[in-house]
Specification:
The complex is a heterodimer. By secondary structure, chain A is of the alpha/beta class. Chain B folds into 2 domains: 151 residues, Rossmann fold (3-Layer(aba) Sandwich); 55 residues, no CATH class. In chain B, 32% of the residues lie in helices and 14% in strands. Chain B contains 9 helices and 6 strands; from the N terminus they run βαβααβααβαββααα.
């Protein structure tokens, strides 16, 4: 099922991120998703997030598919050249994957193999364009594909908290022209800023899904403020979490996320949840948010 | 030294677009030896521009366009002619284009491509860098090279990783695309950011057989 169909139905779309393990024991990761089956429209599988070696997105997506979960395969430009990427796109189609999210990718120096060669033969815009080309039956060199071409719903990312915002919006337009049909954002904690962003891109008529990341601790919030581009947790939220104390921390965190979802959902067409190990709390948050 | 080859005239004219008033600037250093700069190239390109209906507000020949102090001093007396122009067409290598872009508030179009000599780098005074990619698009990025400045060498930047205008790889390094955005805004060419840059041709990094037979490649040839 292509995610774009859900948007067309007018549904408020909910996706959840799945991070493959650093190893091959992936069954546990997938089993944890069982309680979310009826609540989540599709599951994003990350492609070596933060440039840390993990099991691949392609294999994990196939395993999700075999358990009747709808996968969104994330593809970054960090590790493979245009041959490798185009081949993986064809492989994704053959494995029954119908949704792709195309990203530039974090630099290898951010991860656990900092000496690796940064490939970046393509950037996210060129990758979107390449996939669109394959969907039209041609590879990047202009050669015809044999037989029927692959079909996907194509997603991309945008950073509504970036400063300055203008280059992000220009790039978002480029991504749409290259083939992007829906967007997922980095974690949002500032409702007004996000609403302002959505207003600015309303004319582009593409679905935008707000990123939701559970704040596991005040320390995590401060870490993100210092280290994660475009994510800003306001002091008011950090103080609220700190004020709850250690015993009530989880409850308060989920309450904050549910409130954010309620406040954000009027501006956008869906939410993208990055549970970071708290998958078991997702159902509760969605219920509190009235979804 | 850096080795340059002329871009096809059609490509140069396409990059000039509707700009009609051009200031023509040539380097008399490496580019003169490569016949992409110097007096001879200056006259040839001057004639081509005039034939294409362009109006030259002025011309200048500078010994070394890679030397910022020299460039600033030499262009100081041409400033009113440069001001009148829509842009500058520079007959020089990628370093020269970057240096001139730092000195003036105009688009600087490269008339040449800097071509790979398989790892041989030239020598110039400052922090500009040129990877000799063979496909110079410095006019589209306001004179800041995305290949050497951006850690990911993105052609359609920025990525989502920059924080406070600094690169995700090194918080003490500026994000190249942030600088490009600021420079394009300064010279009134923000629409350049909307251009789709297709993927780079990496085959240009391997010097051709013809080039390997020249003394540019091997001084003993």
């Amino acid at each position: 099922m292509k995610l774009t169909e859900r948007f067309k139905e007018g549904k408020f779309v909910i996706t959840c991120e799945v991070g493959p393990p650093k190893g091959i024991e992936v069954e546990k990761v997938i089993d944890e998703l069982e309680p979310l089956r009826s609540k989540i429209d599709a599951f994003n599988v990350t492609d070596l997030q933060s440039s840390v070696l993990r099991l691949g997105s392609l294999a994990t997506c196939r395993l999700l598919k075999e358990k009747d979960f709808e996968p969104i395969c994330q593809l970054t430009c960090r590790d493979r050249n245009r041959l490798g990427l185009q081949s993986d796109v064809l492989s994704a189609a053959v494995l029954g994957i119908e949704n792709l999210l195309c990203l530039t990718g974090d630099h290898p120096q951010l991860g656990d193999h900092p000496e690796a060669m940064p490939v970046f033969d393509l950037d996210s815009v060129q990758l979107l364009s390449a996939v669109k080309g394959l969907m039209n039956g041609k590879d990047m060199a202009g050669n015809d594909l044999e037989g029927r071409p692959p079909q996907f719903a194509l997603g991309a990312t945008v950073n509504p908290g970036a400063e300055p915002l203008e280059p992000q919006i220009i790039k978002m337009e480029k991504k749409i022209e290259a083939g992007a049909e829906f967007f997922q954002t980095q974690a949002v904690y500032e409702v007004d800023k996000f609403a302002n962003f959505c207003e600015k891109v309303k004319h582009l008529k593409v679905p935008v899904m707000a990123g939701i990341v559970f704040l596991k601790s005040p320390g995590m919030a401060k870490f993100m403020n210092a280290n994660v581009a475009g994510v800003y947790v306001p002091d008011s939220i950090i103080d609220e979490l700190t004020g709850a104390g250690k015993e009530k921390r989880v409850e308060k965190s989920l309450e904050i996320s549910a409130r954010l979802i309620k406040e954000l959902k009027g501006s956008c067409q869906g939410i993208h949840i990055m549970a970071l190990g708290w998958e078991r709390h997702v159902a509760a948050v969605l219920e509190m948010a009235g979804l | 030294m850096l080795f340059t080859q002329n871009k096809p005239t059609e490509e140069v004219l396409e990059s000039l677009g509707a700009e009609s008033k051009i200031f023509l600037l040539a380097c008399n250093g490496c580019a003169e030896v490569c016949e992409t700069g110097g007096e001879k190239a200056l006259s040839t390109i001057k004639a081509e521009l005039e034939k294409a209906g362009k109006n030259l507000t002025g011309t200048a020949l500078v010994d070394f366009l890679c030397n910022k102090v020299l460039v600033a001093t030499r262009l100081a007396r041409e400033m009113d002619k440069i001001e009148q122009a829509d842009s500058i067409l520079a007959l020089t290598c990628g370093i020269g284009v970057q240096v001139v872009s730092k000195v003036v508030n105009k688009v600087v179009h490269p008339a040449a491509n800097t071509v790979s000599l398989g790892g041989l780098q030239g020598l110039w005074p400052a922090d500009e860098r040129c990877q000799a990619c063979g496909d110079c698009a410095l006019d589209y990025t306001g004179g800041i090279c995305p290949i050497t400045f951006c850690a990911k060498s993105l052609l359609n930047g920025p990525c989502g990783g920059a924080q406070d205008g600094k690169c995700e790889v090194d918080s003490e390094k500026d994000c190249g695309w942030q600088l490009i955005y600021e420079r394009l805004e300064k010279i009134g060419r923000l629409e350049n950011l909307k251009k789709f840059h297709k993927a780079r041709d990496h085959s240009k990094m391997l010097p051709s057989k013809d080039l390997r037979e020249t003394s540019f490649y091997d001084i003993e040839k």
